[in-house]
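Sharing a chain and its predicted structure for anyone who wants a worked example. Both blocks are below, sequence first, tokens second.
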Amino acid sequence: MRGYFPQIARAEVISTDDSAGEQTVDVYGIAGEKFSKVYRHQMHGLAGHAPAQSNGLLFALGGERSKAILFGGEAAGKRPTGIAEGNTVLYDAHGNVIYLKGTDGLQIKAKDGHVYVTPGSGKKVYIGGDPSGGGTFAAVATQSGYSTVVFAKV
């Protein structure tokens, strides 16, 4: 009879390979175990690249350590804290944050860089609401004249 191996353990990310369809990680497990090319599970519509030394949960499918999957990958000290109940924060390891603040609205914060908004080809950016809901929108004035793609509610 084989010995029992824990099916769930905490793991630390050593490195990440994000070059293919499935992201894989090399991780340290318990008692000095090292795993290579472990599939890192992520939800559809949300992709991330956890920095080295992030922690996650290593699941050994069927108790087989060779069939491990990593869930999560959170870097201590990078996650914003004090998030109000029911609110959500999307963040990176560099201090850029998108806050979904419930009844207080939404906040986008770029720590150092620019904020880019790129509409589809031939499409426009509307500030102040959806024009199909009514109201008057006017082209935003720039140093070079009126914009052909950015409109604000007046």
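Comments welcome. The radius of gyration is 22 Å.
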